[in-house]
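A quick word before the example. In earlier lectures we treated sequence and structure as two separate objects. From today on, think of them as two lines of the same record. Here is PhnA domain-containing protein written that way.
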Amino acid sequence: MGLLEDLQDRSGNVCELCGSTDNLTIYEVPPVSTGGFDGSALVCSTCKGQIEHPETTDVNHWRCLNDSMWSEYDAVKVLAWRMLSRLKSEGWPKDLLDMMYLEQETLEWAKATGEGVAEADKIIHRDANGAILENGDSVVLIKDLKVKGSSMVAKQGTAVRRISLDHENAEYIEGKVDGQQIVIITKYVKKV
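And the structure line, produced from the sequence above:
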């Protein structure tokens, strides 16, 4: 079976967030690098659109999180946590967040995109030219970099796809170079 069939089987062929049966698609929960069964959720086009475009959020649509926040699947819990965090100024989402429990590793995944952090407190990653970097972006190295702890040298001009951001340090990103996951300092990359 493929991933879509696995997620349909897991969810009973309904959106794992709101229970809708219309226009279901796979949503890979950022900033996972593998996606797959544990890193994805089956969501409807309404949920996906509002997750990806916060300006279109219909607060009442998300009352469904009262049920989906108790999912046994981490990807669904992470999405529920992020949406509740985004909406917590409404009142009722804050009450649900207070009830919600996530294991430490799952909570770190949920916080990795900066959802729920005040705009003034968000860490912004910028490349050598000042362009804002986001999870999933592709960058190019602008200098040969010696990788600490190995004999590897990441060469200038090497493309690093699907980076992930360090949510504690604005100067660090992670990505794979020659199949090895490494930490890269942002002043040595240029966004593609």
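Notice the following. The longest strand covers residues 172-177. We will return to this example when we discuss secondary structure assignment.
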